[in-house]
């Protein structure tokens, strides 16, 4: 299962060569006389780990520096801010009224700038995941725009929104399948077992698209309290950054007995950018939030995590690491199905974080406890790397 296709061999060679935005510094040290003393230092730009750290710092600094300006600009443009649900917790009508939304623009800006600076521009995995992220972000932005301008919760028609997300995800999955090696690229890898995979054939494109769309909307449902979504997103991004690095490294993947996918290690840089931009956003999103992430950020980040999981062949592990998002989505599905079939509600309110609000938990209690659950689920998901 570890034989490379010709395309993957070229990908690995391109990544090893280090053709990224900062490569000109290395080239400069090799050609300009007197630069020899700096050659060892500049060679660090060849390492994915160094560039991941650089992307994280760049993303955080970008959001810290430009965040206040973005918030002021959005508050001025939006006026009344994000409309608050009248059927939601009554405390939100007071505490969250007037807060601007579309804070995902801060995260996406830091993410894009950091990725363009630090990632390998020849790596197609980076561009595929980035395309999904921005595509989902545009859908979320339009949804937020309609809600703010019309001051209601209708937003983008649900079916049309899902259809556009599905098209983006299908195209991305088709590109990922074409990029990989047959039949591994169309197979679902089963954790805990070596070399066991279920070949779905071309149906895998539909399956992968379902994973991406589901992840995007699950994160979207989680984004209901200050800081509730961004920290689990960062935890998931850090986890999949590590997984991408290991899966894209032939030595580590062989040692851990996980499936090797050449070129995916570069996705760790993108995950580092998300981690940095997320930290910057959390500074402004911490209770009481100065800005909400909105669909702009939640759909984009969920789609990004889903597409990375498909790219590195860890779709099942995504359900573990992103278990909190799954729980939020399932709570909504159960609530809707139960009410339509029996006329009764399983939860006092869905998504489930609102259920705990109705039980009397304070917002900080819910947020911090959900963060703890996310950490535990991430550790459980990462443990599957060694249990083979």
Describe the structure.
- This protein has 388 residues and is mostly helical.
- It has one domain.
- 68% of the residues lie in helices and 2% in strands.
- The chain has 17 helices and two strands.
- It has helices at 6-17, 23-31, 36-42, 48-78, 92-95, 104-118, 124-150, 158-179, 204-222, 230-247, 250-256, 267-285, 294-311, 315-321, 323-342, 352-358, 363-383, and strands at 187-189, 197-199.
- It has a two-stranded antiparallel sheet with strand order 1-2.
- A hairpin with a 7-residue loop joins β1 and β2.
- α7 packs antiparallel against α8 (158-179), α8 (158-179) packs parallel to α13 and α9 (204-222) runs antiparallel to α13 (294-311).
- The protein starts with 5 loop residues before the first helix and ends in a 5-residue tail after the last helix.
- The model is unreliable at 13-20 (pLDDT under 50).
